[in-house]
Write a structure and sequence with these properties.
heterodimer; A: about 110 residues; mainly beta; 7-stranded mixed beta sheet; 4-stranded antiparallel beta sheet; 11 strands; about 0% helix; globular; B: about 120 residues
Chain lengths: ~110, ~120
């Protein structure tokens, strides 16, 4: 199975900060990497698919990049509503895997 | 409006069975692969199973293979997850999700999610 490793596991930041979360795959997954945002008690929300494509309605302050094994999710200027947990997920294989999550907290 | 509505969760004893349902509306159900994802209390997301639009191909996480069965009734726009031989570690919120396209491999994530249904396995 393809393992997905996110870093950091948690992150404290302030409104207006630029934040980067990384995700590493245990083997090449081309660009079949997706990012989700989850708030407490809610279902996950797809933000970015195919490493860098925006899902409809996602603010432009979110961006994704990478290919192969290394990927990043960047939030250019944190807003209060962005404090949540973020997950990467590979869809290269028929056996999907998620990263362990990055909890973004207010400093 | 595109919508997924799960049902069927509840409390079950270890070794018991439960069937989850996910009613879909607002899109052409047969055109999309569907996926179940679970989240244990305080833990991250875990992929459980996926099925192609026709229902002809199914895939399972090792943790549930041989115990869980995913299926769909395209005439009823409904996705199912039959869960047998349940264990305490299957306790979680179970989400059904619509794949962004018809494929499972080389695909683009899940763009619509249900609200989740809670399964608790305990004596």
């Amino acid at each position: 199975d393809i393992q997905m490793t996110q870093s950091p596991s948690s992150l404290s930041a302030s409104v207006g900060d630029r934040v980067t979360i990384t995700c590493r795959a245990s083997q090449s997954i081309s660009r079949y990497l997706n990012w989700y945002q989850q708030k407490p008690g809610k279902a996950p929300k797809l933000l970015i698919y195919a490493a860098s494509s925006f899902q409809s309605g996602v603010p432009s302050r979110f961006s994704g990049s990478g290919s192969g094994t290394d990927f990043t999710l960047t939030i250019s200027s944190l807003q209060p509503e962005d404090f949540a947990t973020y997950y990467c997920q590979q869809s290269y294989s028929t056996l999907y895997t998620f990263g362990q999550g990055t909890k973004l907290e207010i400093k | 409006e595109v919508q997924l509505l799960e049902s069927g969760g509840g409390l079950v004893q270890p070794g018991g069975s439960l069937r989850l349902s996910c009613a879909a509306s607002g899109f052409t159900f047969t055109s999309y692969a569907m996926t179940w994802v679970r989240q244990a209390p305080g833990k991250g997301l875990e992929w459980v199973s996926s099925i192609t639009g026709s229902g002809g191909s199914t895939y399972y996480a090792d943790s549930v293979k041989g115990r869980f069965t995913i299926s769909r009734d395209n005439s009823k726009n409904t996705l199912y997850l039959q869960m047998n031989s349940l264990r305490a570690e299957d306790t979680a919120v179970y989400y059904c999700a619509k794949n962004l396209g018809g494929l499972i491999r080389f695909s683009y994530g899940m763009d619509v999610w249900g609200q989740g249904t809670t399964v608790t396995v305990s004596s």
